[in-house]
Amino acid sequence: MVLAQLGGSISRALQQMSNATIIDEKVLNDCLNEITRALLQSDVQFKLVRDMQTNIKKIVNLDDLAAGHNKRKIIQQVKAFSIPIYWPIVGVCEAVFNELCTILDPGKPAFTPKKGKPSVVMFVGLQGSGKTTTCTKYAYYHQKKGYKPALVCADTFRAGAFDQLKQNATKAKIPFYGSYTESDPVRIAVEGVERFKKENCDLIIVDTSGRHKQEAALFEEMRQVSEATKPDLVLFVMDSSIGQAAFDQAQAFKQSVPVGAVIVTKMDGHAKGGGALSAVAATKSPVIFIGTGEHMDEFEIFDVKPFVSRLLGMGDWSGFMDKIQEVVPMDQQPELLQKLSEGNFTLRIMYEQFQSILKMGPIGQVFSMLPGFSQELMPKGQEKESQTKIKRYMTMMDSMTNEGKFILHKLTQNLLTELDSSNPKIMNESRIIRIARGCGRPIMDVMDMLEEYKRLAKVWSKMKGLKIPKKGDMSALSRNMNAQHMSKVLPPQMLKQIGGMGGLQSLMKQMGSSKDMMGMFGGGDK
Ligand SMILES: Nc1nc2c(ncn2[C@@H]2O[C@H](COP(=O)(O)OP(=O)(O)OP(=O)(O)O)[C@@H](O)[C@H]2O)c(=O)[nH]1
């Protein structure tokens, strides 16, 4: 399965899960099985896939969720009180995303050469993996960054290897060393490294001959080159279409030489995404670059998160996780909560929420996948229409502001704009006609917008009576938040999963410390 298909399969599996009304063990298992199948077909090693599935289940354990053991998920769920989102799906997506990122990130950065200080980098890999081409790409990349690279051809096995390197190096104006007559790769490697050290080159790249894991003699030769040149970094070059063999091959190299980083080549073709994951797992070294074509500059720094996003077929999933917080920015939550606690869900608040959703751009569409997020406002499969609808509502509300008609507040005698009033009754016929005229929309549209406002106001009215602390004191908020409030604002399915009112109460007891509760709102130190 090629990369794009893998992404498609995984996102389809997640989408199917999001279509389910209730996410129970079976729905979660079906989704994970689907993802597992897709990864296996993409040549991710079986063990890796199995571990990943177990880990995701641990993170998204629905039983745990009900019993309140899984704080992280609960934290996400409680955050959901800010907006009616069915959060567990985000949790599963995030877990899949994080698991893939974890596999690709072995936790230790690769060696980076320093300018002005001689470093030796040795390239190893299977025959035809693109090693020689990649050596030059790597040298050229660093040359552009101000390094002084040099190439040494220690591939005495393949006839024509030296010519190929010479040709590439000449094109890129990079000094090179090799021999048509010498057959000992160790000797050539040592001579080349010494020579370029004397010439003050700071990045000496040693290309070795391609080999297969069955070729014991060639592996021994590679080990000797490594011992003699003492490279600062051994780079394993792997063709992305190698398939299931990737793990074993990478491991065989790692067992002979201290592989410190991986470069995956031919990512431009019918690339299998799984190989990269397997190579990292086998070598416990990070992928640092990818080759995306035959040309010198078709070479990119490897970045885990965008790669996984691509793998999952979701433009920028990591960005989504960050942006999700924007729906109600953390620093604005106390203010917002204050207004809501007073039962003041105004058209202005609705306007600001719409603004946040639109700010999320196409990512906002992801919300429409999530059951619970205003089915009426964002029906599935009609994201574009929904966005247009939101924009239309906002235009109507703009017209309300511009008219600047004020309403006298019954109790405070303050003058409020239509946008700041939380009493839908004030929107009488003459006001509706005026707004419709002002924005050039039919009266029905204005009424439609006001219906949506009433619907949302009803959801938010459940927050009424919540004691809100002063701005910044989130822990006080958590102390004042009781299970009763929570039960009102959590979507019913979510409450059911937590174990109803009883489950919620015991959960809140367990999470009693203010530090934990602060975490629930994204505040405090984590
Ligand atoms: N499309 C594409 N082709 C690549 C890429 N990298 C290398 N190639 C091509 O792959 C083929 C093999 O590349 P080489 O650099 O000769 O491979 P090698 O690993 O040095 O080969 P041995 O010396 O036999 O081990 C060449 O035709 C390269 O042009 C890439 O990122 N994308």
Brief write-up:
By secondary structure, the protein is of the alpha/beta class. It has helices at residues 3-19, 25-41, 46-59, 62-67, 71-79, 87-104, 131-144, 161-171, 185-198, 216-229, 246-256, 274-283, 304-311, 317-323, 333-341, 347-359, 364-369, 383-403, 429-439, 443-460, 474-480, 483-489, 492-498, 500-510, 514-520, and strands at residues 119-125, 149-154, 176-177, 203-208, 233-239, 259-265, 287-291, 299-301, 406-408, 415-417.
- CATH topology type of the domain at 343-463: 434 Repressor (Amino-terminal Domain)
Structural class: alpha/beta
* Binned strand content: 5-15%
* Number of DSSP strand runs: 10
Mean pLDDT: 70
* Major beta-sheet overview: 8 strands, mixed
**Widest β-sheet, arrangement of strands:** 3-2-4-1-5-6-7-8
Give a structural overview:
This protein is an alpha/beta fold. The chain has a domain at 343-463: Signal recognition particle, SRP54 subunit, M-domain (434 Repressor (Amino-terminal Domain)). 55% of the residues lie in helices and 9% in strands. It has an eight-stranded mixed beta sheet, sandwiched between helices. A two-stranded antiparallel sheet has the order 9-10. Helix 21 (474-480) packs across helix 25 (514-520). The radius of gyration is 30 Å and the shape is elongated. The model is unreliable at 64-90, 313-330, 362-376, 408-414, 466-481 and 506-526 (pLDDT under 50). It binds guanosine-5'-triphosphate (GTP).
